[in-house]
Each structure stands twice: as C-alpha cells, then as structure tokens.
TrEMBL record:
The keyword Transmembrane helix applies. Pfam families: Ncstrn_small (PF18266), Nicastrin (PF05450). Residues 39-213 form the Nicastrin small lobe domain. InterPro entries: Ncstrn_small, Nicastrin. The keyword Transcription regulation does not apply. It is a single-pass type I membrane protein. Belongs to the nicastrin family. This is Nicastrin. It is found in: Membrane. The gene is Ncstn.
Amino acid sequence: MKELIIYSLAFFIAIQIQWALADRTSLKIYKNIQSDIFCFRRLNATHQIGCASHSGGNVGVLYLVDDDEEVRNITAHPPPMPFVIGMPIALFKMRNMKDLKQTGNIRGVLLFKPATSKSLKNFSPDQSCPNRNFGFYTEKMNVEYAACKKKEWNNLQGNDALGMMFEDWGMPIFIITNKTHIKSIKKCYSDFNNGTEKNWPLCSVQMSSVMLAAKDSDTCMRRNKLISNLNEVKTCDPLSDKNIVNTLFPTNKSEEIADTSFIVVSARLDAFSMFDKLAPGAHSTVTGLVTLLSIAKNMDSLRKRISEKEEAKNKNVLFIIFNGEAFDYIGSSRVVFDMQKGLFPVRILDGIKYQPSLINLTHISHFIELSQLAPPEIPASLWLHTDPVSTKSSDVSERVKELIEMFKSEAEAVGLNVSEAPSDLPLPPASFQSFLKHDKSIPGIVIADHDKEFINKYYNSIFDTNEALNVTLLTQVLTNISTAVSGTLYQLLTKEKLNETLDSTENLVSGLLECYLQNASCPLFREIADPDMTERLRVEPYPLYVSVDSGGHTKANAITIFTRYLLAYLTGEKEHDRDRKNCTGNVQNQIYHYDWMAGSEENTTGVCIKSTVMYYNSIFDTRSPNVTLLTQVVSTALDI
C-alpha cells in the first residue's frame, strides 16, 4: 500500500470566520498532535468498509463522554452542530458507534487508549462467521454448512465489537495513546466547552483521513486505469504479500514426484484489526506459527535418520506458511490455483537447469493445519476438527481416523488431552478448506484449542496481544504440541514411532514467542538479521497485517521477511566457505537459496545459510474468484 501518511491531531478554537484565518493566526489557535493509529477504508466486490474523511477533513465541536449513559444521552439529544466524540476505548462498541452514526451530525471519533488501559473483556470486530462463503462451505458448494449454519465460530457472549470491521463508518476514527496528548484534548474541552451550551469560542477538532477509493473493488480498479493530467492516479491496491514454502527434502524437476507422497503442514502468518499498525495476532496467529517453526526445526534434526529409512523413500513434508488468510483465504487460494495450473512452487523454464519439482493436489497424502493454539490451562486440551463432507468417502474417513489415532498417541505421551470435535460440524475457518474446495480426497485435520466456538476473546483485534496470554504456560503447551506433531510426521514418513526426546524445543519456542509477542529485537531476530542491521531492530513486535501489490510488485512485510529468514535459519545449512560477497545463488539453480545473517557466534562477520525456503506470492490472480482490495491512504491528520 502506498501511504503518504501525515497523521496528526490538531485542536483549534473555532470562531465564525475560521476559514478566512491567515497562517500566522492559525498557528495561534491550532494545536497539532501526532498519532499513527487510524481506521482506514477497504473494498470488496460489492461494497466499501472502514473509515474515511472528506477531502478537506472532518470538522466538529469536541464532546467528551466517559460512560455508556453519557453516550446514550448525546445520541438521544445530539448537538445541533457537527461534533466529534472523544471517549475511552472501553466505549468502542457496535451499539454506541451505530447510535452515534445515526445522529447524522457526528464527524469523527477519538478513542483514548493510554498504555495503562486494560483490555476489554471480549473484543473481536470480525464476523461471527469469519471468511463467510469463501472457503469450502458456500451457497454454491455444500450449502448445508454454508455461512456457519451449523455453528458460528466467533460468537462469544459479551462481544460488543462483533462485525465492526465490516461496517462502512463514513467518518475518521483515530486512537490516541499518548497520555500527554489525551490530557491536551481533555484540557481543550474543559477550557472552552465545559459541557455547557454556548456559541463561540468552542474547542473543535479537524480530522483528516482522505481515501481515494470508493464504492467497490471493480470500480476502484477501473478508476486506477484513468489518466489525470498525464499521470496515472492510484486509488487502491490488491491485498498481497508472500507465502513461505519449504520442503523437508529438496526436490528436482528432473525427478518425478509420486502421488500422495507429500504431507502438508500449514499455519497462517497474518491477522487484522480495524486499525493501521495494530494487528498483533498473538492468539489468532502466532500460536500456530510458532508451533510450525518449532516442528520444522524438529524435523530438520531428524532428516538424516528419516532419509535412511526404506519406508520414507519418495516421501516428503511440505511446510507452508500462508499469508492473507484473514481476508478470504488469499494465500492458500493462490497456492491451490497455481497447483492446478502447474505453477507451484515455481514456473518451470527450459533455460534453467535446476528447479524444484512441480507439486499439485494429487501429490498430497495428508494435511495438518495448526490453528489457534492457546489452551488456558495445564493439562492442555486440544480439539481435532475434520471435514464432514470429504469423510463421507470411506477411504478418506479411514485415513483421517488413522491420522487422528497417530496424533492422539503422540499427544498422550507428552500430557496433552486430545478430543475430536463433533463429526457433524464443518471445519472452522482454515486454509485446509481451500484445498478441499478442489480435491475432497485429501485427508486432514485442523488442530485447535476450541471445540464448537473460539475461546479467543480477541480474534483479529487490537487486543490480541501477549497480555491476554500466559506466555509461560503457552511455552510449555506449544512445546508439547510441536513434539506430538513431529512424532506424528515421523510415523507417517517411516511407519515407526520416534521414541526419542527432542532437544531444545522449549528454548526455541520461548525464543520465538519473545520475538513475535514481546520484543522484535530478540536474540533470534538479531541472529537472522543482516550483521549491519542488528542494532537497528525495533523493540515493538511487528504487526501481522498483510501487505499489498502496488503496480504489479508485491513487497513482503517486515514480519514476512523475518519469518522466512527464521525458517531458513532453523532448517538450513551453514556454508562456511562463503563470505558475504559469495553468499548468493546461481541463476541456473532455483532449488537452493542463500541468505547472509549475523548468526549466533561471537566475533564473526556473519554466516551464509543455504536452504530450500522460498517465497511464494499470495496476491490472487485476476482470473481467480478471490480479489480483495485495500484503499490507498493519501493523508491522515487531526487538528484541534
């Protein structure tokens, strides 16, 4: 997304001739307050959602409210003039926001969220049925289970934010976190408005978050092609980023892959919230992602032993970290689409000698997805979700049962309680649905911490942070899940039980959780960063919001880059005879990739890592059904 962000909050004392003020006069009555957290507009095929201001900004007299009763009072008797509401984020609820919008005079909302504020009891702005009608269960396919007819997964009682992400609010909404700025806003209100009826002067607010995109994705993309003053005007960009792909054993296009020879292990990388720069995804995303990275490391340590087993010949594991899943399964849908077109994981070219083998749906023997994995207590309880449509086939059903029994056995050995979700329930939101949509013969399970509905109180929200989790307990749980899945993979590959304790898994899980949840300048991120960049790493965890495709070029987000480096670091080999200059690949060899990293050893200039880890675009092809778009942000500002 191209963002020209000038995000500021300005207070001003409004007088009747405010629009005729000279610059020097305006400097005396305006106060600018910098901020960078704002709600923005998004588009899909039918409509627009989110927030935006008029081209010149939205102006309104400032009103402050402190509780629900005060919100009800102001909505029952709204001010006669345009107004802007300032309120604690605890009042940011669907009912309050809809009531305020219906007054007709509201021009914007300021949400006060100081660092000391507590998370709300429940807060998920996603739908009760996330990714409704974009997976395996649609009105055109498997209508019995479409639109969560059997069960709405994200429907916890007391969630006053349900569905807020998908409303078109038609006004700017900003979050203010700085205590000094919040104090300035409140002082302006108390000095000039004071809750009493009077004319002028009044403390007013100007909020600007101009969005060029409008109506729906088709309209916006068509406007992208218009020329204005000989310049192309971009109004929106398709959501896009990079999937991350790795195989346990390297493949070569010169060698044929057998059908049902690949076990897919997947997790998602992205999350969202209503606000830019706030998509922490701790429970929603990080728990499954960290588990996958740990499993990949475990399997790498077992690779040599597995390769020596006769039963494991011609078998492999495909690790895929999908990006864009929170928006209509963008990442997994693109992978399936290209598998069907013979383009995954690379486009085969005669001019390149060494390339990975093409993988398609018939090559998949099993699918194991790591979903939300944060059970609240020890011993941890997990639920295995299966698809009721594909398991109507006796062959698929039998293979699913074998997989379940295998995992249960491994899980029991590490103290996990494992149950099967009701067989008549469809899968929860999962990337596996994208695969079943085109091949119902794939046996698979989705491993989750919930049965009939999410236990995550903050699914896809700004409050889905480490503060909502017991990280110490979580470390132990994810370690055990990683061990159980690794043992299951070993059995599937070799037909033998592992019967071995995997070393250092808990330390790795602890380190990964620190990086994704608490401190982006963590030891692991410092080890995988370029040696010249280790001292420049930020402390705040990176947001997990998916990136965009701008002008045909997909740029990976920072967290995507770090995750690919992590997977390469955990599963790759050190090339001791290569220095920084020579740590590069060969244009004739696309099987291996080389990355220069700081490494863990002291007094070294860096280390060259050779791996099979690669990016794979998660922008969706225009010939495909899922195209989700993001607006282009021109400017965001707030003046008081």
